[in-house]
Write a structure and sequence with these properties.
By secondary structure, this protein is mainly α. Helix content is about 85%, strand content about 0%. The protein folds into 2 domains: about 45 residues; about 40 residues.
């Protein structure tokens, strides 16, 4: 049997197996969902006050970083324009 025929038969079997082996995928999906549900039982979610505090912290830090980067950009742009316009 030529190698090309052997390879073609093997590829066709692989494609057939992947298309019609949905039972295994369904079982894997169900197993994944069960494990996810079990893991979510152990998760402790933050309270409403903690969520508000963390949100305010993130917004404050974001604004501070934005202001810092804007100041650095303005300063470097001004320094570069003075350096080039001597």
């Amino acid at each position: 049997m030529p190698w090309g025929v052997f390879f073609r038969i093997r590829v066709e079997f692989y494609v057939f197996y992947k298309i019609f082996s949905t039972h295994n995928k369904t079982m894997n999906l169900l197993k994944y969902l069960k494990e996810t549900k079990a893991e979510l039982k152990d998760v402790t979610f933050p309270s409403t006050s903690q969520t508000v505090i963390y949100t305010v912290m993130v917004i404050t830090i974001s604004v501070a970083v934005a202001l810092m980067l804007s100041g650095m950009d303005l300063g470097l742009r001004e320094a570069l324009s003075r350096l080039l316009n001597r």
